[in-house]
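Re: the 319-residue chain
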Amino acid sequence: MARYPDLQAARGFLRNADTFLLTSHLNSDGDAIGGCLALRGLLHQMGKTATIVLPGPPDRHYDFLDGWMAIRQARNPAEEQFDHVVIIDCPQRDRIGLVQGYIAPGARLLNLDHHPGNSGFGHVNMVSTEASSACEMIYYLVRAMELDLDTHTASQLYAGIIFDTGGFRYSLARASTFDAAAALVRQGIDLERIAGRVFGSRTFEEVKQLGQAIHSLALHFDDRVATMHLTHAQLRSGDPEEVVNAGLLVEGVEVAVLLKEHEPDHYRISLRSKNSVDVSEVAALFGGGGHTKASGCHMQGTLEQVRNKLLSAIRQHLE
C-alpha cells in the first residue's frame, strides 16, 4: 500500500459523498472502461450513486462487461452537473473532452491514474507510475476499503489489467500486478471469455483494416523503425489502437508508429517501443504523452510532413 501515498485520501473521498460522476480520457480503452465500471459497482455496493459519462461512445469490445449499457456519452450542452468527480486513467484534465461540462463549478476531483507526467489536477491525487493500470490501483483501493469483490467487478478489473499489460507481456506488469490478477481469478472469472473479447474478437472490417495498415508498412533507419498509416476512409470501421503493435513484430524493429488520419491533414499518432526508446518523450514534443513504451499525440499536416517530423524526432532517441 505504500506505493499509493494518497490511498487513504482517496478512500475518504469516496466515503464522504453520495453521488459521483465517473469518467476517463478520449478514446477510452479497456483500462478506462473497466475501471469506470468496476468503481461504479463498488460505489453502488456502498449505497451510493455513480454515473459514467465518457467523451465518446464506449468501445463495443467491452459490451460483455456488466454495466456497459449504463455508460453515457457526453453531450453539449451537458445534461447535468456533478459536485464529486472521479477521473480515471487520465494524465491531464483536458483529455476528458466534453465531460468538462458535467463538472460543476467548485466540484471536488479524485485523480486516479498511473501515467508518467500526470499533472496532479485533482483535489485528491491517487497517482502511481508503479502500477500497471488504473484497474490494478482500483483493486488495491477496494482492498484498503474492505469492500467485497464479486465476479462482475473482478471481470471488469481483470479486463483492464490485461488490456494495459498486453496480456502481462509488457514491463508495466510487476509482482503486484500478478498478485492482483491472482486475487481476481480466485473470484471465478471466465479467463478465456475475457481475453477472447479483449484481444480476439474483431469484425470483418476491423481485420481488413489491419491488413490495410500492414500493407502500408515501411521501415526506416536500418530497419529499426516501422511506420504504418490509415486514411480517413479506412478509419470508418473504427480507431484501432492495437494495430500499431504489428510493426513491432518485424525482427529488429525498436519503434513502431501508426498514423491515423481522423480528418484531412489531421492525424492521431500511436507510438510503441520495445527496448530503450522512451516514446513518451517523442509524443511530448508534439503535445502528447503516455507511457515509456506506449504513447500518442495529435499532429497537423500532410502524411509526408507528419511522418517526416516524427521520424526526425525518433532518430534523436535511437542509440
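The chain has two domains: 7-199, 204-315.
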